[in-house]
Amino acid sequence: MRIDGRDYRTIWLDADGRRVHVIDQTRLPHRFETIALDDLDAAARAIRDMIVRGAPLIGVTGAYGLALAAAADPRDAAILAAYETLLATRPTAVNLRWGLDRVRALLLATPEAGRAALAYAEAGRIAEEDVACCAAIGEHGAALIHAAAEKNPGRPVNILTHCNAGWLATVDWGTALAPIYKAARAGVPVHVWVDETRPRNQGASLTAFELLSEGVPHTVIADNAGGHLMQHGLVDLAIVGTDRTTRSGDVCNKIGTYLKALAAQDNGVPFYVALPSSTIDWRLSDGVRGIPIEERGAREVTHISGRTADGGVAEVQVTPEGSPARNWAFDVTPARYVTGLVTERGVCAASENGLKGLFPDLAG
């Protein structure tokens, strides 16, 4: 996607084919900076500290992390230790395990001398597959936006999203935002309601940054405004992403998604979830009971950073000194509140039969 006239992906290799470069998403939207990941520890830190985030991008970064580890030490013990280090960084998104499992299996079946090259090649394939997957999600989801435009000629299609499921959460295009980009580039008038997404403000910081860079009309709103907008007919459809989807169609996404789905159900607003098949956890049926929910540090709730009048970036405390805080990062929306799942193979019902219909080869 485009930033200041230049096309970027979120992760790429240096000219030497070894160092991994990523966009430092903790600096956005006020500063655009990239950093190099030189070794396993740097890759693990990038995932853990949310320098990179979003389920698909976490999976690709994990794959490259194993490649960095294999380049440093290709022995079995080192590969297995690196796998565990990377897997422990973020517990909720299933893509991380998926990417790591894929690379680890290849490495352990290959002589040590060829492991580093094989790991880099496989990580690169995973990245390219993610780009193609997200582009396909965009095409299938754009058809839903086209249909909404035909129902309401003469005005933009108003779309509500939550958190950031754009190209910053993937390698390129994104999941929930890919249909919006595809529709906008096809000339469909769209307008996006961007939830701020407390406490890390990924909507206000990242989704708004993306949409602004792409020239897509949008408005940032407080997290709790979505229900009000739906009650007054100002939302035509909602599209969100997911970090893990059960085989029954339950979706785990950024905290606050569940409340948006409830409001959408009450007001007859279609609620779609966009996801690559790598996000489906075929082992789980009940998302509420089965998906581990990451709890992050309380400081993300008690403090907030922003741009000051002189152009600097500062962090301030927003709670009384001594007030405790809790910070659950995700919640689960049961399948019954999801209108449809938008995948790389098409749109299906949020159900086991719906997913098996599109992915019989993966369902087992």
UniProtKB/TrEMBL annotation:
This is Methylthioribose-1-phosphate isomerase. Its EC number is 5.3.1.23. Pathway: Amino-acid biosynthesis; L-methionine biosynthesis via salvage pathway; L-methionine from S-methyl-5-thio-alpha-D-ribose 1-phosphate: step 1/6. It catalyses: 5-(methylsulfanyl)-alpha-D-ribose 1-phosphate = 5-(methylsulfanyl)-D-ribulose 1-phosphate; 5-deoxy-alpha-D-ribose 1-phosphate = 5-deoxy-D-ribulose 1-phosphate. Substrate binds at R53, G54, A55, R90, Q202, N253, K254. Belongs to the EIF-2B alpha/beta/delta subunits family. MtnA subfamily. Transmembrane segments: none annotated. The keyword Amino-acid biosynthesis applies. The keyword Isomerase applies. The active site is at D243. InterPro entries: IF-2B-related, IF-M1Pi, IF_2B-like_C, Initiation_fac_2B_a/b/d, M1Pi_N, NagB/RpiA_transferase-like. The record marks C163 as: Transition state stabilizer. Keywords: Amino-acid biosynthesis, Isomerase, Methionine biosynthesis. One of its GO terms (biological process) is L-methionine salvage from methylthioadenosine. Catalyzes the interconversion of methylthioribose-1-phosphate (MTR-1-P) into methylthioribulose-1-phosphate (MTRu-1-P). Also catalyzes the interconversion of 5-deoxyribose 1-phosphate and 5-deoxyribulose 1-phosphate. Part of a bifunctional DHAP-shunt salvage pathway for SAM by-products. GO terms for molecular function: S-methyl-5-thioribose-1-phosphate isomerase activity.
